[in-house]
Amino acid sequence: MKVVNYFRQNRTLVILSGLMFLVATGVGIANPVLPQYAKSFGVNITMIGLIITAFGVTRIIADIPASRLTTRIGRRPVMIIGTIIIIVSALGAGFSRNYWELLVSWGIHGVGASLFIVSATIQLADIASTGNRGRMMGTFQGCQLAGSGVGPALGGFVAQFWGYQSTFFVFAGVSVICLFVVAFFIVETRSKPQISRESGERGLPATPPTDARAGIRALLSNINFLMISAVTLGIFIMRIASLNQILPLLGLVRLGLTPGQIGTAMTITVFSQFATTLICGRLSDRFGRKAIITPGCMVAALSLLLLSQSYTYGMLILSCVGMGIGTGMAGSSSLAYVVDIIPRGNHDAGMGLYRAVADSSFVYGPLLLGWMADAGGFGLPLLFNCLLLFVVGIVFQIFARNLMKTKISDEAGA
CB-side exposure of 211: number of CA atoms within 13 Å? Predict the structure, then answer.
């Protein structure tokens, strides 16, 4: 009975979280084998990084247009289009006969991922309030992480027994299920524009929601947005390049691990992140975002230092736990901090810009860390990422304001 009541009261949150679980599971199935699949075509680490970069470039290109589409045609139609593109790209990757076909397919996947994630995040921002934002973002990202945890272990063993290409066909199948849920169960959250009194308290003008350019300019001139974007870039580089690119290759080359062992290590990272995210989402509502974000950056930086010195499977697993805890602390709280900043009527433009800034890490992260690994071994890129997270964490703590106020509920008073 409690479950039924919870679903009725949180229907949109539950469905969106379930969708993110499905999509993240599909992506997680492909992630641990993508670098090895690309390597099977006879390319170096830098060229492997180019595939992830292509994915990032197309996401950046699509992020802001995706946010505008959610205003013009609605959140739900954009999610449907994005899911269809994800299915097509997964099939294209599975049927790839050479490196360049895989590169194009994964680039197309970036467009679909952008449409899906931007529309889902805007829907969540539509229904969240000041007092429950951290909890809702934590639940949403927690389900995403749970899917990301199931995916790598499943993908590693699927690849081990049926080959690399089979993982992309499983990804496509999971995405078909996701399409069914979006088409028949998602309720449109787009409504008439409303300007919240939150805007003035966050140091931003109450920009009309139709003036997307003015809203973007306001965010780009806001020190708090710039600081949280720097934190997000450091976390994304760790997740995209250090975890999904460098770690699988380090495990394969330095430690001689099987795809199943690598997938299991990545799953441990995600599940530790999942547990931390659920806890820290609520804590950030109570104690503020900065109290969670800065320590998260420090834990993540230390875990990267440990990973750079990992020469046994046990040390690698320990570093994976640390990465999960660090990103779990900083991840959901960072997203809630961004929504704190964005004026209520500009979630579409604001979230599109934030996703574009975050997704820029797909462009230079894999290429830069891949080049470092080719030039100086696996330790060099991991130490670089470690230093980056440590510096941005300190800068954020010093210069960013703690905007979240748990006792303020503008939505209730509006």
Answer: 11
